[in-house]
């Protein structure tokens, strides 16, 4: 089983939110767990070495390293912590930091997320720029993570199904579905060539069989793109962000829903701007689509992301279905 420190590091959990559970004793005091029979503090050299082994030197981090800035900040944080309590610094920790100082930033880096039920990692190549080339699809967003958690919690609903996703971005939700559930086929759609290229790379990195997925270009509002697919369900995550795109988005939702065997769309939407969200709901009403918020309170939180933001999980259906 992977340690919580490993999982947080690979997912690039901000250091201000990092939980050092591996170092906590039974009395919840921050001390070195590997020396639980002795009164060693949490930052002895053996403990530092353990942290290096399960983070920087972890097999996944070696092959798919987190961003250089994050790795440097992570090691520097530990160095500062150790030096502040006047402990000796582990030689390997110093060596890691020197090595990191010699590296140069790359445009893309990796975040890796663990699926407990399958012991699989979802490896995501993402961009350092949240918005690049006119698209926001080069990073994973919180709504996609909540939707993926909900799908894992409701595996039986998707067993043997054909799924289609609107605005797949770099592919997180679909990859979780393909590696963590028994979906038969998954269609990723997006409109930006840079995003589609990164999406294909992420699918290849995660070694998904070509028989299990399709990548299709789709511009919201273009009805011709909708006619070749007959999914069981339609999915979408964090696609409501620009009021100028809401009308075309709902046109696509209505079109693909009409093609869907279940006439159902599941959507995860982070409410960043209440007015944009209201505009979206208004468009659903205008297209005679009914919707309701699903309860996610019992869905296990499997991935590391900010849980404080308000994320709606909507079930959208045609009014006549």
Structure description:
The longest helix has 17 residues, at 68-84. The termini are far apart. The strands form two sheets. A seven-stranded mixed β-sheet has the order 5-4-3-6-7-9-8, sandwiched between helices. With 321 residues, it is α/β, with parallel strands linked by helices. Mean pLDDT is 87; it is low at 24-30 and 131-138. 37% of the residues are buried. The chain has helices at 4-10, 45-54, 59-63, 68-84, 91-102, 142-153, 155-158, 172-180, 193-205, 246-259, 274-286; strands spanning 108-115, 120-127, 162-166, 185-190, 213-217, 233-237, 264-270, 289-293, 311-318. The chain has eleven helices and nine strands.
Question: Would you spell out the secondary-structure blueprint of this structure?
Answer:
Elements: H1 4-10, H2 45-54, H3 59-63, H4 68-84, H5 91-102, E1 108-115, E2 120-127, H6 142-153, H7 155-158, E3 162-166, H8 172-180, E4 185-190, H9 193-205, E5 213-217, E6 233-237, H10 246-259, E7 264-270, H11 274-286, E8 289-293, E9 311-318
Parallel strand pairs: 3-4, 3-6, 4-5, 6-7
Antiparallel strand pairs: 1-2, 7-9, 8-9
Helix pairs in contact: 2-5, 4-5, 6-8
